Amino acid sequence: MITNKPLQFRNYKPTHLGLLPYYHQPTNVIGETEKLCQNIVNEARLHTKRITNGEGDLAELVPKKVNWDLKRDVEKKLRNLDQVYQSSINQIILKQQKKKKKKKKKKA
After folding, report:
1. Are 93 and 86 contacting, i.e. CB atoms less than 8 angstroms apart?
2. Taking a C-beta distance cutoff of 8 angstroms, is the pair 19, 29 a contact?
């Protein structure tokens, strides 16, 4: 199957003048990444200065607890376990009430 895609030169600059319109400047991914990293570092420094000057809240620096996702994942299982726990407590209470009734009947 033949597709009619436009001709593009990205890795090298063609020497023929007729092919120059198809030449595209390679993107500078490394430069963009470095700029992004530098912005992140600058924001972190600014935030640290705010905290040390007493302007910011120290709670912002505290990371989430390690188990926050564990709680989310286990929540459904805990609900099911809680239902089983409640039903077993109810059964124990019913057994105790039946024993009390039997004792009262024997005494009477």
Report:
1. no
2. no
In terms of residue numbers, what domain contains 48? 28-99
By the 8 A CB rule, do 51 and 61 touch? yes
Cβ atoms of residues 22 and 9 within 8 Å: yes
Q: How is residue 97 written in tokens?
A: 């009430």
Asked if residue 63 belongs to a domain, the reply is: yes
State the Cα–Cα distance between residues 102 and 58, nearest whole angstrom: 63
pLDDT tens for each residue of 3-14: 788 888 878 888
pLDDT tens string 49-93: 887 777 766 666 666 667 767 777 888 888 889 999 999 999 999
